[in-house]
Amino acid sequence: MTSNLPLNELGEFLKKRRSELSPRTVGLPETGGPRRVTGLRREEVAQLASISTDYYTRLEQGRMQASAPVLDTLAQVLHLDDDERGYLFRLAGKPATRTRRRGRQTVQPQLQRLLDDVTATPAIVQGRRGDVLAWNALASALVTDFAAVPEKHRNYPRIIFTEPAMRTLYADWDGSARTAVAQLRMEAANYPEDSRLIALVGELSTRDKQFARWWGDHRVSARTIGTKTLNHPVVGELVLDWDTYTANTDLDQHLTVWTAAPGSATHERLRILASWAADQNLSPSSALA
């Protein structure tokens, strides 16, 4: 029979680590009201890790064994370094291997060169989880200044749900947000043990009730084609066709471009927006390399 001592020490370690984090540290909104505990609450850790509060409570109380994927997610949620992560796994009696963990993605050189050459069409490259890996200046002018978004938060679904300006930029924000959730669902099916994706879903489920409800619908969507209407604060209404192309050298990288028919009002407004972007010194991603 397994001794309760390691499980109790595991619980004490989890409690200590969550007590050292604030909601702001993990991307949760500050409520402004008094908090009865120092650091994160159990339910906040559970939501960020996409597990039930009861499950997490049992872990802390030494009444539940944790699986390796759950431990891996908790290590990320609690911002553990490599030594702390290894210690967590040892307390739980699990090998601290990093099987199936994927490294940081960088944009394929061919896609970056293409972005650098495309100046009249907004374009971005998304990787796993919808992470924004690269963009051109016109995409920054169209959507948001991606360079101003911290790299760890430079994720398209996250931007849609956490940036207030997106709710007025997209004429049909609900439709666009639902599509983002459905695409994220497809990612989860492809990589069910991606700890960063699990943490992202946990964060957005905690921050936004609509995300939580739509995630629960289990609808899926691939990145293909479509039409979006944007209410841009500088040039007004833009009706844009979007299309997605997958890199043969990395099937987890997708180039999305927004175009308009030549001679249309939107086509002319894109030219005006490109001129405005140049005046604002909005930089493409390659300028940050």
Automatic annotation (TrEMBL):
Xref: InterPro entries: Cro/C1-type_HTH, Lambda_DNA-bd_dom_sf, MLTR_LBD
CDD domains: HTH_XRE (cd00093)
Domain HTH cro/C1-type: 39-85
UniProt xrefs under PROSITE patterns: HTH_CROC1
SUPFAM superfamilies, A to Z: lambda repressor-like DNA-binding domains (SSF47413)
Gene3D superfamilies linked: 3.30.450.180, lambda repressor-like DNA-binding domains
Protein name per Swiss-Prot or TrEMBL: Helix-turn-helix domain-containing protein
Species the sequence originates in: Streptomyces akebiae
